[in-house]
Design a protein that fits this description.
Blueprint lengths: L8 E7 L5 H12 L3 E3 H11 L5 H21 L4 E4 L5 H13 L4 E8 L2 H14 L6 H5 L4 H10 L6 E4 L4 H17 L2
Parallel strand pairs: 1-3, 1-4, 2-3, 4-5
C-alpha cells in the first residue's frame, strides 16, 4: 500500500557495491511504506529465469524494467525507491527523463560514498554470510567495476545528496531519512 504524500516521490539510492545501498533502501522503504525496486533483484530474476540470456543482457533488461516500473508507480501517484549503483551515465539520463515527464514528482537522489577498502571488506563479509554472493576479489574481476567506481567518484551533481556511508548504519539511515523527509516537506 502506498501512503499518500503531497506529490509522488522518486528516491534513488546509488553507490558502489558494499556501500550499503540495499540495506538503506530497504530500511527507507519500510519506514515510509513505499515500494523498493532493486536492479540486482530484477536483473538477477531475468538472468535466473531465462537461462539463455547472458548476464549482461539480463541486467540491461533489468534496468529498463526498473525505470519503467518506477515511472509507472509515479504515474499512479505512488512514491518509489530505486536501489541501483547509479554508476553509469545512462542511469542518470533515465532518472532525469522520468523527472522531466513527471514534473510533479519530488526527486530525492542519494549517493552513498564509502572508502574503497571498506566496500571490499563489506562485500567479503556479505560473502561469508551468504556464500552465493561474490567475494570482493571476484567482483574486482568484472570488467566494468573500475569504470563504475570512477564514475561514482567523479559525480558532481547539485541535485544529489551525498552521504558518508563509512559510518554506523543508524547514522547513515538518520541522514537519509532527514533528507527525504525534508524533500517531502518542501512540497
Amino acid at each position: 500500500m502506498c501512503w499518500p504524500v503531497v506529490a509522488p516521490a522518486l528516491v534513488v539510492i546509488g553507490g558502489f557495491p558494499g556501500s550499503g545501498k540495499t540495506a538503506l533502501a530497504r530500511r527507507l522503504a519500510a519506514r515510509f511504506s513505499w515500494p523498493c525496486l532493486a536492479s540486482d533483484t530484477i536483473g538477477g530474476s531475468i538472468r535466473d529465469t531465462l537461462d539463455e540470456v547472458p548476464s549482461g543482457r539480463a541486467f540491461r533488461a533489468g534496468y529498463a524494467v526498473l525505470f519503467t516500473l518506477a515511472e509507472e508507480f509515479l504515474g499512479l501517484g505512488c512514491p518509489v525507491l530505486i536501489d541501483t549503483n547509479m554508476g553509469w551515465e545512462f542511469q542518470w539520463r533515465e532518472v532525469d527523463a522520468i523527472l522531466s515527464r513527471r514534473p510533479d514528482a519530488i526527486a530525492a537522489p542519494i549517493l552513498l560514498r564509502c572508502p574503497y577498502q571498506v566496500c571490499l571488506d563489506r562485500i567479503d563479509q556479505r560473502h561469508r554470510e551468504d556464500p552465493a554472493q561474490p567475494t570482493a576479489a571476484e567482483l574486482q574481476t568484472v570488467g566494468h567495476i573500475p569504470r563504475v567506481r570512477q564514475f561514482l567518484d567523479d559525480i558532481d551533481r547539485p541535485d544529489v545528496h551525498v552521504i558518508d556511508a563509512d559510518r554506523p548504519a543508524d547514522a547513515v539511515f538518520a541522514d537519509a531519512e532527514k533528507y527525504v523527509t525534508g524533500r517531502l516537506a518542501r512540497r
